[in-house]
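## retry 2 of 3
previous attempt timed out at serialization; input unchanged, resubmitting
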Amino acid sequence: MEIIASVAIGLNPYVGAFLVAALSAFSGRVPLGEFGSNVPPSVITVAAVLLGLALPVDFILGKFVRFAPSVRRTSQYVAPVAAAFFTACISRSELPLALVACGSAVLSWAVATMLTGFAARASRSAAWVGLGHIPVLMAAATAAACIVPLGMAKLGIGLTLALIAVTGLLWSTIDTQRVALATRRRGVRRLVGAPGAISVR
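## retry succeeded, writing output
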């Protein structure tokens, strides 16, 4: 469950963390670990309320090109902190708690960073007239909203969706790097073939 929560929070820290906090605070459907049992319930409740209030702000401002970069940078800071805290709360792993929290923070930050890059590239795409980041961020928020409850109901389904999301982001990142490398190579070939160009071997 720690992996599912980390990926969901990385996709959208407000949606993912809100669901984990709300399900823990109000439904009791999320089993808390030893650390989570020692956290006062009021802390998780307040966290759920704050995340719920931040969610519409992120959802609205993230759609505007002017505010989207700042919103995404904020999300990249929020994601690892939220992932470390909430995965520590729900973790029942035999691994040391500090290791679980650090691993969750790194995974969540990596997902958030890849998503930011994907959204930025989509926003620059001429096919979407600069609005390509909107469907990317909406899809990420939807995935985050689905992964957590499905993971609660059927761990295998939630884990599969989380792995699909991470694989998709990795593929988009690797594919972009290949395109950039191919573009640079074509540029070198044009430079080498130009009059007076220095031969590159």
